[in-house]
Task: inverse folding
């Protein structure tokens, strides 16, 4: 077994969380600006079209490796060459099969829905992206096992900047929805070239049954959760899109974009803590403290950012000329915001379950969410349109409190106590913002005023009641600075 240096893991984890958080801020800044420009240049239906095709092709990712990549990351022992090549061989076989099946399905849908060249080229570009992503898996796994996310993050930043840069450029030049396809081709190819240039591994095809058997033992239960998640998230979205149409689905896509921005911080922590928790699974007290710290700092950042975005969203729409087309998205945005706040705590908990090998427990939760989603999403969407989808999002999210209860038992943590201060501070910042809103000032003044009020109220409360956590965080920064 690899020797575990707890201090080294702690330092690497803190350093990588900070790095990935900064990286995600950069990516989100690019994404938000890019998406914002695209939603000005393109129509609601065109945004909805890309979202629908993207959801369709993203389903392929769930069939690409049967959880073998996660099994390699979670593995306690050193990864062997035959395990890497076995994983790569199985993955590429699955990729080929998935693409063949998807091609026939798309052809059938194309006939029934009268798809044209726009849908076809978006589909082809996303399939190409899927192939490139599968080829990047092994280099990424090797880097994640070393808790070295610098290169992965660099590639992500470059890919994201290229995608939105080229998408906006070609949309401005009048390529309409084809802009998405062109940008996807460029992003995928460039990312693949860069990661192999700096994290090359000797690609090889081989199959070792013992290695495969060992990896499948963890990988298949893990991937079962992914399949269930796919049914819950991707298939339900496609079902909703079929019910409400591409224009209304475009409204939902816009409504989700803002509230999901703060989740990039959660993603940074989760990406680092999965391999970290896997190595700490025999050190329960340290694992408990690490999980509590993760939850606290996720809440500290995600809660106020999500609520803040919901508060200024109407003013942003009113401020920008020709942006009124997105006004219907404000109502569902509020429901997505509440959902994101709940998910920001729930997702790290299920991530921790997976990291310590409790896959079956996560599977039970995923089945529960899937049943609720496949029941409420189509039912309420059919009855109330896209607003009904928003109702369904909230109903499913509220069921996550069951996960919180179980996590408290498994990890011996107090979730409500851990996130109490960020929750109170967030609620307190809402009240003066609503009072300020009632003054009926201009949209620009509203945005600036709400941001200043939120920062002051939230910062003041956090300084008074979370001083110990802030001092701890500052010490981690100081330690990293000293080590450099």
Result:
């Amino acid at each position: 077994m690899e020797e575990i240096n707890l201090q080294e893991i702690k330092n690497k984890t803190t350093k990588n969380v900070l790095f990935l958080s900064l990286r995600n801020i950069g990516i989100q800044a690019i994404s938000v600006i890019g998406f914002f420009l695209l939603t000005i240049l393109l129509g609601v239906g065109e945004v909805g079209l890309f979202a629908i095709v993207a959801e369709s092709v993203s389903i392929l990712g769930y069939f690409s490796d049967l959880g073998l990549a996660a099994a390699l990351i979670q593995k306690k022992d050193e990864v062997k060459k035959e395990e890497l090549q076995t994983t790569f061989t199985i993955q590429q076989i699955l990729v080929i099969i998935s693409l063949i099946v998807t091609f026939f399905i798309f052809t059938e849908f194309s006939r029934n829905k009268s798809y044209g060249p726009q849908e076809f080229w978006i589909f082809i570009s996303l399939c190409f992206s899927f192939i490139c992503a599968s080829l990047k898996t092994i280099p990424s796994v090797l880097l994640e096992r070393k808790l070295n996310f610098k290169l992965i993050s660099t590639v992500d930043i470059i890919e994201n900047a290229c995608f939105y840069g080229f998408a906006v450029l070609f949309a401005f030049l009048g390529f309409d929805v084809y802009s998405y396809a062109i940008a996807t081709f460029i992003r995928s190819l460039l990312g693949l070239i860069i990661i192999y240039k700096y994290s090359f591994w000797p690609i090889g095809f081989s199959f070792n049954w013992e290695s495969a058997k060992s990896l499948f033992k963890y990988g298949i239960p893990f991937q079962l959760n992914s399949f269930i998640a796919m049914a819950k998230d991707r298939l339900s979205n496609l079902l909703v899109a079929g019910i409400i149409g591409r224009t209304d689905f475009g409204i939902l896509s816009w409504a989700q974009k803002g509230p999901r921005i703060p989740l990039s911080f959660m993603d940074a922590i989760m990406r680092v803590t999965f391999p970290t928790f896997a190595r700490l699974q025999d050190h329960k007290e340290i694992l408990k403290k690490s999980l509590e710290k993760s939850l606290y700092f996720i809440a500290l950042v995600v809660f106020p950012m999500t609520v803040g975005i919901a508060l200024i969203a109407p003013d942003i729409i009113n401020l920008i000329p020709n942006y009124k087309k997105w006004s219907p998205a404000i109502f569902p945005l509020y429901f997505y915001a509440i959902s994101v706040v709940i998910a920001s705590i729930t997702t790290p908990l299920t991530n921790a379950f997976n990291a310590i090998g409790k896959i079956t427990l996560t599977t039970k939760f995923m089945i529960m969410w899937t049943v609720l989603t496949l029941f409420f999403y189509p039912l309420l969407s059919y009855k109330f349109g896209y607003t009904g989808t928003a109702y369904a999002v909230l109903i499913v999210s509220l069921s996550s409190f069951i996960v919180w209860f179980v996590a408290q038992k498994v990890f011996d943590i107090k979730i409500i106590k851990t996130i109490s201060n960020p929750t109170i501070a967030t609620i307190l910042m809402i009240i003066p913002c609503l009072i300020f809103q009632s003054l009926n000032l201009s949209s620009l003044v509203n945005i600036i005023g709400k941001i200043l009020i939120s920062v002051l109220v939230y910062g003041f409360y956090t300084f008074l009641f979370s001083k110990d956590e802030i001092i701890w965080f500052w010490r981690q920064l100081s330690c990293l600075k000293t080590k450099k």
Q: What stands out?
A: The two ends are 29 Å apart (CA to CA). The first helix runs from residue 6 to 41.
